[in-house]
Amino acid sequence: MTYSVKEIYYTLQGEGARTGRPAVFVRFAGCNLWSGREVHRAEAVCRFCDTEFVGTDGPGGGKFESAEDLAAAVQRTWPHKGFSASPYVVCTGGEPLLQLDRPAIDALHNAGFEIGVESNGTLAAPDGIDWLCISPKGRAPVMQTSGDELKLVYPQIEPEARPETFEQMQFEHFYLQPLDSADLAANTRRAVDYCLTHPKWKLSLQTHKILGID
Q1: Whether residue 64 lies in the annotated active site
Q2: d(CA 148, CA 56)
Q3: pLDDT for 32-51, tens place per residue?
Q4: Which of 7, 15, 28, 49 is labelled catalytic?
Q5: Is residue 195 annotated as a catalytic residue, yes or no?
Q6: Of these residues, 7, 118, 148, 149, which one is catalytic?
Q7: Is 25 a known active-site residue?
């Protein structure tokens, strides 16, 4: 399988339960909820996406002809050769599960990496992922109903994306993340108030934006 990747880069995890952890991010190209092109945003299932995932022209991006080639690129991006702590890779997108398969998971493990995945939850995850976070979007049906972390952008206008829709799913952590829009301050206040009155949920902030890092 050829893997199409927008970019590969080293940074800190900015959101959710693993905020602050150093990681190599692999941003796979393509998504099943939006084309990634502004001309199509109005009719997209997810209309608030804030990432660039079209093409393979970002830093470290490209087309990788094998799982081993992809893992080698990730390994080159991790700067701590011989570092004792487990290297960490976050597979994101777009929608990473359109491409991330068991050969890629095995190759990344063989390269020494712990694997995190950030998915919209519309596709079943393959076995072998070490940390699975899903972030439901709009009216899209959630097929992956278990994992480590459910992180919901809040508020969303679709009734299918209300927090109570997901509370019986099998996740260890439940996060609300304020929708980054012109109403960010109001959205943050609403998320805070919801967490205070529904303590199953915790607040997630996009700390990478606050700190001005990638």
Answers
A1: no
A2: 29
A3: 999 999 999 999 999 999 89
A4: 49
A5: no
A6: 118
A7: yes
Exposed e or buried b per residue across 183-209, where buried means at least 16 C-beta atoms within 10 angstroms of its C-beta = eeeebbebbeebbeeeeebbebbbeee
| DSSP H helical ranges for the chain | 67-77, 102-110, 184-197, 207-211
Annotation says 207 is catalytic: no
pTM given for the model: 0.96
Domains with residue ranges and CATH for the chain: 3-211 (3.20.20.70)
Amino acid in position 74: V
Q: What is the pLDDT of residues 70-115, one digit of tens each?
A: 999 999 999 988 766 789 999 999 999 999 999 999 999 999 999 9
Residue 182 Cα distances to 5, 178, 187, angstroms:
30, 11, 9
15 carries an active-site annotation: no
